[in-house]
Amino acid sequence: MIAIMELNASLHRIGSDIVAAYLVVTPEGVTVIDAGLSGHWRELLAELTSMGRTLDDVKGVILTHGDSDHVGFAERLRRDHKVPVYVHARDAGRAKGGPKPANAKQPMRLGPLLGFMAYALRKGGMRTAWLTEVVEVHDGETLDLPGAPQIIGLPGHSEGSIAIYVPAADAVFVGDGLTTRHVLTGKKGPQPAPFTDEPDQAIRSLRAIVATGARWVLPGHGAPWSSGVEAAVAAVETTARAAK
């Protein structure tokens, strides 16, 4: 089953609440934000077709960070269709398959964990094609891509994690800066993401996205949040304090 969600005319999601990627759609073309898992390729093609678009309309991919469940089909787009892939300079090595720090023990429940693993297997999570070339970006840049996406440093989950603010879509894409569905416990609502390198830093970094005032907060895992960025960040901070 192909899972696609149109959030508004310029904002589409492919994937699911387990792993998601997004398309920013403008008359000038399409910007892909995160590339999910390799098996999401079919959903990308299906959504482009449904909009009367083709792969030629995809002008760039921006990765919120370099983990395997965000790299997905990015190398395929770059290699076969000459689509540039943008990632923060501090996560470039990670996106190319480099090492990542070992995370502390994670809270988990068996059902959600097995569900995540099964979904990842179905969607090619064991067949990651790491990037061989990237375009490095830095905090504060506005990229010359559809939607004029703005780069906001969001270190913590990884050293080079970023958020991407697209004013035309009234949306900020946060990758694993936060989650609205914990893949290991199944808990829903804005909260800290698992597998985070520096959890305290990740929470502090979220203050950087509040100034966007965006309505949509779009994580790599979990349902889209439409109640505003300030409420999302406040909920994460509350959850983090309660866990200490």
Automatic annotation (TrEMBL):
InterPro entries, per the entry: Metallo-B-lactamas, NDM-1-like, RibonucZ/Hydroxyglut_hydro
Chain ranges of the Metallo-beta-lactamase domain: 18-221
One Pfam family named in its UniProt record: Lactamase_B
Protein origin, superkingdom: Bacteria
Name of the protein described by the UniProt record: Glyoxylase, beta-lactamase superfamily II
Top-level taxonomy: Bacteria, Bacillati, Actinomycetota, Actinomycetes, Micrococcales
